[in-house]
Amino acid sequence: MGLSLTKAAQWTTASSGTGKLEFTPMNESLLKEILRFVERFSSQHPQEAEHVFEEPLQWRTTLVASDFKTDYDISDSAVQSHEKDSEGLPLLQLSPPAVYVRSFSQLSKLVHLADGKKLEEVRACLEENRDPVVKILGRSFATTLEREDAQTDALSVVDKVKDPAKEVKGKLFLFLQKMDKQILSKLLEEISEKVSLDPAAAKNEVELLKQLCSDGEKRVLKSLRYTSEFEFSNGCRTPLWRQVHGEICYLVIEPCDAETLYITYSTAGVFLNEGIKQEGEESGYERTSDVYADLVTLLKSRSPHFAKNINKQDFAAQELPSTHKIQHVESVDGEEQGQPQRSYEQQEKNVHEKAKQQHTVNKAGGRNKNEMCPRWSSFALLSTFGKAEEEEPSKSSGEEKKKLTLGTRSKIKAEFSASSSAVRQSSQKMKTSAGAMPGELTSESSTESEEEEEQPERRLEGDIDRLPEYWQIQKLFRYLKAGNQTTTALTLCAMMDLNLMQETCQLIIRDLGGLEILLNLLDTIEVRCKIGSLKILRKISHNVQISRTIVYTSGLQKIVTILDLPDKDLKALAAETIANVARFRRARRTVRKLNGIKKLVKLLDCVPNLAKLTENQEKDVEVARCGVLALWSCSKSRKNKEAIRKAGGIPLLGRLLKSPHANMLIPVVGTLQECASEESCRIAIQTKGMIKDLVKNLRSDNEELQMHCASAIFKCAEEEQTRDLVRKYKGLQQLVSLLGKADNKQLLAAATGAIWKCSISTENVAEFQKYNVLQTLVGLLTYQPDEVLVNVVGALGEFAQIPANKATIGKCGGIKPLVNLLTGTDQALLVNVTKAVGACATDKDNMTIIQQLDGVRLVWSLLKNPSPDVQSSAAWALCPCIENAKDAGEMVRSLVGGLTLILYLLKSTNNEVLASICAAITKIARDEDNLAVITDLGVIPLLTKLTDTTDDRLRHHLAEAIHYCCMWGSNRESFGKVGAVAPLVRFLKSKDAAVHLSTAKALYQLSWDPNNVIIMHATKVVKPLLQMMRSDVEELQEYASGCVRHIRKLFLANLYHCLSY
């Protein structure tokens, strides 16, 4: 931690001289390596880990007193460790917000307690302790050893110190030195893979390519030029403020078969920009493509003619761009090398400021007939049709001119797409750490599809000038720009006659700048114009590209504002438009930030189930329906779900749930099933009596409504009271009836999911059996999509908890398809399959079939799956398989590498995995030969390392594993030597009865060794054992009394020995 911090770490500069660690990929790797060293040090070097630091490491921590469990004295907000140094000072002391740590063992425990904030704690510690080696060893000792040769081993160093008491210090220093070298080596490997370009390389490559622009057969490019002819002394041609970002020059290249390319040549690579055409432009620097290693590679990817005709041999013979390995690269591009990105809000603010400036210029100097509106220009749409044509050389024919116009339009669309996704592309293609989206986006619900965020940019193919819709729409927008209120209203009516649901019309409206005109009409006081504009926006906003443009141009703010107006037609149209637009995360977030959720919830206040409605009430119901549609779209965000609940939306949705109309019920139930993923919303749905209405609507003839109702029950049935209510209102029979609609896979998935969750209650399983559900579910184990199989297998796992059902599954032929599913890749499905196989394995006949199908080997192989959930589920399934298998010991030994894999998972950091593996070891260790094998493989120290846990589930199975592992050779003595006895005694402080029993069994086995008895007596085990002897559980009484008996016998033997002398 010495050289790596002083030479490899990247620190910020500060006037006080105490900088902070920058948020860069290199620092991230450094912190992870140090964290890994600290986590492993205590277990790998227990003696050195107990060494007390010369000075405590002190920093501001995020931990609080409640994060500390056992082994600490907690007083209000202060915490002290039980472990103390020779002077009685605690080795760990927390006085919020400061924490003081004086040994590696306590440092390792603190990092473990930090859980998800481990890296933050390491960062804070290193920032406030810039030279931790000095604090750990002392300045004089560290200085002495630093002068020694780097290859000197521990013994020679200790000899030179000539103080046996400092032997541990010498070893500790060399461990730190070794770790330092390993970190530096790894960082050097990562850095050495990065290649940096320089101005000389750029100039060399450009000059070579200029030679290929000549006329003739060898021509591969039309033209290539710099945007600036001025060259700085360092060889760069970019403004000084862009050179800071590593940019060398900007190029304008015209290929023979593609549109003009605007390119940035930087030290990080070569990429397309938004269109820097000449010197002095203050925008267009944003990257719109991948980053390429050199200019030739970029041109090959953009121009097939260039890639096909370039003479590779001639070009290769020239001097190629020089690249050199670098040891340390300062940040070139803030968004790629770790500098914090600007938020979307900041980018929008800057964009709109530029738009206003552009608008002012247009007013002063007149606006080009074909020029794009300022709002479009603000999103990198800098090239206009007229302007592009003026700048290009005149063409010899009208056809070429049309081709140029089309190419310019295509470029505009491509630039718009790239500007909206540049950050995402940089993170995926360059694999840098700075590609993360703002924190607000990462907190959105997991139910949101990633596909909605990655829609490709749609562009019209062919010559759109020849489309009749193009000229018709262009003419109508001219009228909208120049006409009065009446003309505008009539023009909007004429536009409604167009096929606005056709994608061609939608994209033409967008490309002509029509969206801004329609959005501007929402600012007028003329209601007719607002209604006409919203009717058009409502239709064209079904297109995702249009929806994005509305959000990016701040149009959503105007639509949300309309929700406050008294006109009901306007509110209904605005809500329905929001429903179409809010199909991606940024739109949903914008609605919430504009207080749109509360405004939409207010629209739901109506009475929808009256026998006869007045005209005004019908409008209220329609407004409510549109409001629910908007909430349905918004509810795909976790924060929006909570906002809907806080705004009082759940009770109002419950009232609308009584509507007799399917067009109202579908969005209502859809919104409820989205909200039901949150526990607070599930409780509200249950307490407001909506389960009865959901069950009632399962009887509907509308399959979409049935699907949403079943999905809502699936999510709500996590609560036991909800499962009881579904049974009470006879919903179980309705769910069973939906299994007959196997052709509708979405409905089938929802129905099987609801059956799965409802079957968690054994009362519901008994009710399901009246309708032969088990046989039906077994029949669905084949030829179904994964979303159906996950639910079917989950339900079978719950059904198999009842012994009679296990035999039924086997008789119906369900074991073979279950075993076949073990070869799948879907993690959720694997978790449920292993649970079902494990439950069925407790039946002898089923276990015979599982063995014949090689099912145990398949389950065992799932321990290699990277998912902790799959690992733990597979380990739990192995327990009944081993217990009930014929010749279980031989079967386990026949699995090559199986026992090694089991012991490897004892190094996992997941408590559920550890508990399940300990349970599996309990079964394995019942065979003496297997116990001997795992003993040789080192099971004793691995189990001992887990004894510091405070998780009662893990404690229970860990103690059971130790109990059975004691029954071989000298394992009892080995457990005592590696320090397993004292931590086990602390298990007796748990309030879990299962932990008490398993710990008593383990202590009983360990107490057969006299040395272990001495440790038990020293750790005051007798008192808790005496209390357990008064337990109502006979087995606990037996093991506790047996342990006390061994302690007493040793005491009497020692007493007799003393008296005999």
From TrEMBL:
Q: Where are the ARM repeats?
A: 605-649
Q: Which Pfam families match?
A: Arm
Q: Which InterPro entries match?
A: ARM-like, ARM-type_fold, Armadillo
Q: Which residue intervals are annotated with compositional bias (Basic and acidic residues) in the record?
A: 345-356
- Report which residue ranges the record marks as coiled coil: none
Ranges for region Disordered: 330-372, 415-460
Gene that this sequence comes from = odad2
Instruction: Report which superkingdom the organism of origin falls in.
Output: Eukaryota
SUPFAM superfamilies per the UniProt record, alphabetical: ARM repeat
| Gene3D superfamilies named in the record | Leucine-rich Repeat Variant
Q: What is this protein called?
A: Armadillo repeat-containing protein 4
Compositional bias of kind Low complexity: 417-428
